[in-house]
Amino acid sequence: MKFKQLAAVGLVTAMVFSTAGCSSKSQQTESSAAQAEKTPENSQEKAQGGEPVEIVYLNSHADVWEGDVGKEIIQKFEESHPGIKVKTESYPFDQMIEMVEVKMKSKLSDFDVLNVDAPLVTSYSVRGYLEPFENYMSRDELDKVFTQTGLNAAAYDGKVMTAPKRESGMIMVYNKDILDENNIPYPAYETDKRMTWEECLDICRQVTKVENGTTTCWGIIGDQINRVWNVMPLANSLGAAWLSEDGLTATGYLNSEASVKAMTFYQDLFNKYGVSPKGVNTNEAREMFETGKVAFTWGDPVCYARAKGKGINVGVCPVPYFEGGVPAVGCDSWHIGINANSKHKEEAAEFIKYITVGEGSSIFLDSQNNIGANMERIARITDASAPDHEVYALLASDLENYSVSRPKTPGYNEWSDVVNAAIEDIRNGADVKTTLDTSAARIDDILKKYTK
Question: Which residues form a coiled coil (predicted)?
Answer without folding.
Answer: none
